[in-house]
Design goal:
This is DUF2934 domain-containing protein. It holds the Pfam family DUF2934. The protein has three helices and no strands. With 96 residues, the protein is mainly alpha-helical. Helix 1 crosses helix 2.
Length: 96
Amino acid sequence: MTQQTQTDDHIRDAAYFLWLKDGQPEGRDQEHWLAAQAELTQVAETPKPKAPRKKAAAKPRAAKAAAATKAEAAAKPAVPAKPKKPRAPKAAAKAE
C-alpha cells in the first residue's frame, strides 16, 4: 500500500466512526470526511510530550541503615558484657 492509500484508509475509518456517532445521516459524507481529515492532521501535528528524566538511583535502604549503625557504634562507648550466671549442676543419673 502506498502512503496516500494508508492515509485515505485512516480518514475513511475516522469518517465512518464520525458518521456513526452522528446517527448515520444521509448526504453529509463530505462533512464527515473533512472533519476526520482535520482530526487526523491535528493528531499528527501535535508534538509528543518528552519523557521525564529519570532520577539518579538512590542508595538502597539497607546500605543506609548499615552506614547509620556503623556510625552509631563508633559514637557510643563500649559497654562491658555482663557475666553469665552459673548453671545449676545436672541431676545425677539414678542408680540401679
